[in-house]
Amino acid sequence: MIEIFIGVVAGVLTAGLLWVLKWVIQDVAIPWYQAQIYKGVDVSGEWNGSLFEGDATFSFEISIQQKGHAISGVFAAVDKYPDRESRRIFRITGETLSNHIILRYSPLSQRIWGGGTFLLQVFDGGGTLRGVQSYIKTSTGVVQANSGIVLKRKM
């Protein structure tokens, strides 16, 4: 009977040890190694820009964290119209591809829906991102795109 108990405890401890080892390798060691050997562009930091359409202003505030090629962060979209203003917060994931970045975003809150992507190129020695945005318009559900997106790094 004691052998069965020892076998069960050993199995549980082994499974726990393997899970911790997997976590250390996947979430600590590999990102650290990629950050050490990564020689590409660094886009981490705060970025903002605006787009004007008629009497409406669409502002973008993006906070990017970068580990090697992997990008994560938060994107705030502020839409200002003459009679109202709305602010939505999105989660960002993405990656760098040489001098370009791809960002995918989805809502942080389950109360809103939508999402989209940015495809941006780095300019001005890393101080400017220019490109396009495609997104699902939350009021109609229609896929739309904006060209001429310009984001400046906050210093």
**Can you tell me the overall shape?**
elongated
Radius of gyration from CA coordinates = 21 Å
Which structural class best describes the helix and strand composition? alpha+beta
Strand content: over 45%
Number of helices: 1
Distance between the termini: 67 Å
The string of secondary-structure elements, in order, is HEEEEEEEE
Can you tell me the residue ranges where pLDDT is under 50 for at least 5 consecutive residues?
Answer: none
**Largest β-sheet summary:** 8 strands, antiparallel, barrel
Mean pLDDT metric: 88
Numbering strands along the chain, what is their spatial order in the largest sheet? 1-2-3-4-5-6-7-8
Proportion of residues in helical segments: 10-25%
Task: Give the total of beta strands.
Answer: 8
Using brief descriptors, characterize the structure shown.
alpha+beta, eight-stranded antiparallel β-barrel
3D structure, described in words:
With 155 residues, the chain is an alpha+beta fold. The chain contains one helix and eight strands. It has one helix at 2-37; strands spanning 45-53, 56-67, 70-80, 85-97, 100-107, 115-123, 128-136, 143-153. The longest helix is centred in the N-terminal third of the chain and has 36 residues, at 2-37. The mean pLDDT is 88.
